[in-house]
Amino acid sequence: xxxxxxxxxxxxxxxxxxxxxxxxxxxxxxxxxxxxxxxxxxxxxxxxxxxxxxxxxxxxxxxxxxxxxxxxxxxxxxxxxxxxxx
Length: 86
Prior knowledge:
DUF5659; DUF5659 domain-containing protein; three-stranded antiparallel beta sheet; alpha+beta; 48% helix
């Protein structure tokens, strides 16, 4: 999903966010959308649009270690994000 200002790509899917991060897409932060839900924000580009489309079509190959590290990093960010806003 593209953000309104077209400079950001956002998704609420942690699996897609981890994939994009593992592919080298530039992560730019988290945005709260409900008290318990966030969007993961990335710098928008044609590459990110293509990667996301291919991800949802199951047309991607990933390096497992990179994906797991990205997922771990995002979970850590989520933990910090929700704990500092209490």
